Structure formats: structure tokens, C-alpha cells
Amino acid sequence: MLEQTQLLVDKGEMLPLMEEFYTIQGEGFHKGTAAYFIRIGGCDVGCHWCDVKESWNAALHPPTRTEAIVKNAAAYSNTVVVTGGEPLTWDMGPLTAQLKAKGLQVHIETSGAYSLTGAWDWICLSPKKVKLPTEEIYKVANELKVIVYNNDDLRFAEEQAAKVNSECILYLQPEWSKREKVIPVIVDYVMKHPKWKVSLQTHKYLNIP
């Protein structure tokens, strides 16, 4: 039974589902819009400031059939955001095919550290220094969102911006625990480098998931 489940997980027909919820997108280009979030467990990127570290261990989250995930999502919203963890740890093909068959807009939030699978209407690439994105995702990312924890992250942001396609929208977002210190730095930087925009975790200010 365990071997059969693992086979389905490997094929993307089951996924380690951490949580799913209907809320307001708080970050980036689509902030302020209603969306159904699907959070997939499993991540080995290991950002020390991650605010969902409980997502890292995939074994803690029950393998769930993609059909059940899609059924829940379709009941709430026409926009679905797949996040993690790192969702590209798994094959996203079956999940996105079923979501799109329901006529849903399908977005992903990813570090890009693994090969891109699935069919996406919007790709938010949030690269991390510890495990850099694959070259392929730079070509198709719709937005680049760099989390700013310290001044060196601005250097990293420019390095990453040089790799994305010309249509990609560029965002700098303060790491939440450092926001009071970092926001003035980001504001000053964006005013001097207006190709960038400021992204805030507005859902935290709204006190919603």
C-alpha cells in the first residue's frame, strides 16, 4: 500500500497537502484579489527566515489525491495559487491539467530550484541564494520577487533581475521580521531604481491567512 501511494506521489497524482484555504492574495502583482491557496509540503531550500518551516518535511503532510484538491479549489474561486514548501519538488502536471480543465487560472509561487512542471497562467519566481533557480524558469517568469533581509539581498536582486525575461515584473519585498529596518532601505532603493516595485505582505497587515 505504501509503495502504491509513493508511486502515485512520484507521478503527481497524489501530493503531500499541507493546507488549502480561500483568502486574499497578499503579495506581488495580484495582491488584493481573491484566490484559493494550495500549500504543498516538502522543501529542502531551507531559508532561515521562512515563515512556514512546518511545510519543509513532506512526510508530515498526508498524500492527497489531486482530484480531491481540485474539487475543493473549484468550489471557491476562479484563481488558484499553488505554493509551499517548494511545489516544484513534485510533478505539477496532473494537478495543473485538472485545474485548467475546470477553467481555473493557475498561479505558482516558487523558488525555481527544480525543473518547471505543469501549465501555469502566472509564475512568481522568488529565488533563494542557497539553491538558485534553474535557467529555464527565468525565461518564463511573470514576476520576480526577491525577499530583502539585509543589504546584500539588493545585490542578489540585481543579479537575478539580469537573468529574467524583459517582460518580468520586478519586486522587492521586506522579510517580515525585519520590515521596520528594511522597508526604508527598499523604499530608497526603488526610488533610485524605478524598474523595481515594492511588494508588502499585505495579508499580514489585514490579519488574514
From TrEMBL:
<keyword id="KW-0004">4Fe-4S</keyword>
<feature type="domain" description="Radical SAM core">
    <location>
        <begin position="30"/>
        <end position="209"/>
    </location>
</feature>
<feature type="binding site">
    <location>
        <position position="50"/>
    </location>
    <ligand>
        <name>[4Fe-4S] cluster</name>
    </ligand>
</feature>
<dbReference type="InterPro" id="IPR024924">
    <property type="entry name" value="7-CO-7-deazaguanine_synth-like"/>
</dbReference>
<feature type="binding site">
    <location>
        <begin position="24"/>
        <end position="26"/>
    </location>
    <ligand>
        <name>substrate</name>
    </ligand>
</feature>
<dbReference type="InterPro" id="IPR058240">
    <property type="entry name" value="rSAM_sf"/>
</dbReference>
<keyword id="KW-0456">Lyase</keyword>
<feature type="binding site">
    <location>
        <position position="39"/>
    </location>
    <ligand>
        <name>substrate</name>
    </ligand>
</feature>
<dbReference type="InterPro" id="IPR007197">
    <property type="entry name" value="rSAM"/>
</dbReference>
<dbReference type="GO" id="GO:0000287">
    <property type="term" value="F:magnesium ion binding"/>
</dbReference>
<feature type="binding site">
    <location>
        <position position="43"/>
    </location>
    <ligand>
        <name>[4Fe-4S] cluster</name>
    </ligand>
</feature>
<protein>
    <recommendedName>
        <fullName>7-carboxy-7-deazaguanine synthase</fullName>
        <ecNumber>4.3.99.3</ecNumber>
    </recommendedName>
</protein>
<keyword id="KW-0479">Metal-binding</keyword>
<keyword id="KW-0408">Iron</keyword>
<dbReference type="GO" id="GO:0008616">
    <property type="term" value="P:tRNA queuosine(34) biosynthetic process"/>
</dbReference>
<feature type="binding site">
    <location>
        <begin position="126"/>
        <end position="128"/>
    </location>
    <ligand>
        <name>S-adenosyl-L-methionine</name>
    </ligand>
</feature>
<keyword id="KW-0949">S-adenosyl-L-methionine</keyword>
<comment type="similarity">
    <text>Belongs to the radical SAM superfamily. 7-carboxy-7-deazaguanine synthase family.</text>
</comment>
<dbReference type="InterPro" id="IPR013785">
    <property type="entry name" value="Aldolase_TIM"/>
</dbReference>
<comment type="pathway">
    <text>Purine metabolism; 7-cyano-7-deazaguanine biosynthesis.</text>
</comment>
<dbReference type="Pfam" id="PF04055">
    <property type="entry name" value="Radical_SAM"/>
</dbReference>
<feature type="binding site">
    <location>
        <position position="85"/>
    </location>
    <ligand>
        <name>S-adenosyl-L-methionine</name>
    </ligand>
</feature>
<comment type="subunit">
    <text>Homodimer.</text>
</comment>
<dbReference type="GO" id="GO:0016840">
    <property type="term" value="F:carbon-nitrogen lyase activity"/>
</dbReference>
<keyword id="KW-0411">Iron-sulfur</keyword>
<feature type="binding site">
    <location>
        <position position="83"/>
    </location>
    <ligand>
        <name>substrate</name>
    </ligand>
</feature>
<keyword id="KW-0671">Queuosine biosynthesis</keyword>
<comment type="function">
    <text>Catalyzes the complex heterocyclic radical-mediated conversion of 6-carboxy-5,6,7,8-tetrahydropterin (CPH4) to 7-carboxy-7-deazaguanine (CDG), a step common to the biosynthetic pathways of all 7-deazapurine-containing compounds.</text>
</comment>
<feature type="binding site">
    <location>
        <position position="47"/>
    </location>
    <ligand>
        <name>[4Fe-4S] cluster</name>
    </ligand>
</feature>
<feature type="binding site">
    <location>
        <position position="209"/>
    </location>
    <ligand>
        <name>substrate</name>
    </ligand>
</feature>
<dbReference type="GO" id="GO:1904047">
    <property type="term" value="F:S-adenosyl-L-methionine binding"/>
</dbReference>
<keyword id="KW-0460">Magnesium</keyword>
<dbReference type="GO" id="GO:0051539">
    <property type="term" value="F:4 iron, 4 sulfur cluster binding"/>
</dbReference>
<feature type="binding site">
    <location>
        <begin position="49"/>
        <end position="51"/>
    </location>
    <ligand>
        <name>S-adenosyl-L-methionine</name>
    </ligand>
</feature>
